[in-house]
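Hi everyone, sorry if this is the wrong subforum. Our group has a chain we'd like a structural model of before ordering constructs, and none of us has done structure prediction before. Sequence below.
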Amino acid sequence: MQATVAEALQRVPGLAGLEDRDAEALLGAAALLHLGAGDAVFHAGAECRHFLIITQGSVRVTLNALSGRSVTLYRLQPGDTCVLTTSCLMSSRRYPAEARTETPVSALAMGRSTFERGLEESAPFRRFVLDSFSRRLAGVIERMEAVALTPVEARLAALLLALDRGGSGGVQITHQSLAEELGTAREVISRHLKRLEGAGLLTLGRGVVRLSDHAGLRAIADEHPCG
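Answer:
Right subforum, don't worry. Here is the predicted structure as tokens:
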């Protein structure tokens, strides 16, 4: 394996069980891709040609409707594989959604024939692919369940609290980005934010939401837990 590919492989704990012979055969032909922030990884309708394993950075996968609305399906972090990519490779279907980098990203890209040979010949690689697929699929189902069954305001409160990881009270995000995260319209998010502001739970600024009452927001989020 090239040194760069071998180094990238060390960042994927799920492949630690690969024997040297399998790693050489499967990943020796793999390419190490480098993408900038905001680059497209794949588009809806595109043919799937490679199995990707993220080794650095973050990728956001979104489903876009003809109405112009979009919903974030999931994010890929180091060590992750894409459930849509796996599904499309195994079914020969085209991508139903799109993916774009949020930060500079590095990924191992394995051609279709190498991917299929790995599934057939390497039990550790097969376990890695199927485990990653099942975990990501379960996450997508939970997310869609939350979109369908949990009130927007509860999900909005939970998201704002999650984004305010440092407890600073200030979340740098637009109403449109919040709408995409929660699978709804920007106007719906703006309406709920105004209501929460009127209740004294937060204040709105240009591109920023300042949380004033974490406990109050937590009570709203916990009233209808998102999965």
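For your construct planning: DSSP finds nine helices and ten strands in the chain. The chain has a mean pLDDT of 87.
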